[in-house]
Amino acid sequence: MITRIEIDGFKSFENFALDLPPFLVLIGTNASGKSNLLDALTFVATAGTRGVDAAVSEVRGDARGLFRKRGDGSRVDRMRFALELLLPARGSSLSSRWRWEVCFAWAVPEGELEGITIETQRLVSLSSPGRVIPSMEHEWVVSGRRSALQYFPSSPKADWQVVSDIEHELAQVRSLHLEAGSLRGASELGGPRRMDSTGRNLPNYLRFLARETASENRPLGVVGEIKMHLVGLVREISDFEIVEDKRRRDVRLEFASPYDRGLDAEFASDGTLRMLAILAALHDDGTAVIEEPENGVFPERLRQLLGLARELVTGEDEAVTSGPGRPLQRQALFTSHSPVVLDAVPRENIAFLDMTTILEGAVASRVSRVRRLREDDGAVRGDGERWPRVTDSELDRFRAGVEEPV
């Protein structure tokens, strides 16, 4: 489980830090940095597990455009990230907390094309002060196709296990920017097991979730729970089936309503498909990062969906006391500009993003900042906070859909 992210030099972020509980909703107006934060988490997680080239392809913008643009039009030449992770107990071992620090640089190697390289990285134990796993010594102009975590040593065994567990956590980060057209399509029989960021391949994703979590007492596995939750959220739907058609070589979804059966996904509402994809992600292992769940969803149903997400995530205490084997950990991070969030989500599970101006020398630059909401007791500031907390008047404007003047 990812418990903190720090970003410097990526898109609109400068010395940015955010603690991540198991459930968090990021709110703010357009162009406040919400999507950039999702891109940052996707970029660093993908670079750690599949390499820089794959990371660039997973986010919006070209490689050079990922580096923060200053007010004078120039770009920084380094991006620094830090992720803090809670690794659950395995067998008789205790849970542990680790910090992965990595710096990416824009470089023009001699005789090669310019691009992003890994400059430095290390793993630091937060549970055992002084324990550090340095990255292997090598020439830092590295192939963008090789994952960053491959540069950590494969021995001793204890270090290898830490790197393996962190790689597993990062591989389970799923960023969703769902699109109705992608959600409606059938999957190729035998195709990829996961849906992509747009929701493409949803039928196969549900099919694999059913197979991987099935048991004698639960033949459908978590898909049975997904059905129950979807029916509770969408009154027009009474059931859905995952249909495998060997003649057509595809897997598709068919919905049933109180009035009809065999309703193909092509004719289902955008909101129904969107909620089904979100429910599938919330019932899977890892960190689900979901952009604007309110699109196509009635406000009351969004309120219920957010409440359900809070119930489905794994608390840090549960992660600490997990049993043998690799335990299931569920974490959910949403972005939204719906005022429903303020009524449906506790204040400690909300963070507010907006843009602010900083001075770099004599040049003014715009960067994203994150702030917590005031506590119910009126507390305004906590130790170590860089920015003042969000005021009630700011929340009133957000609730009314009114932007502050630039």
UniProtKB/TrEMBL annotation:
InterPro entries: ATPase_AAA_core, P-loop_NTPase. GO terms for biological process: DNA synthesis involved in DNA repair; double-strand break repair; SOS response. One of its GO terms (molecular function) is ATP hydrolysis activity. Pfam families: AAA_21 (PF13304). It comes from the Bacteria. Residues 23-343 form the ATPase AAA-type core domain. Keywords: DNA damage, SOS response. The keyword Glycosyltransferase does not apply. This is AAA family ATPase. The lineage of its organism: Bacteria, Bacillati, Actinomycetota, Actinomycetes, Streptosporangiales.
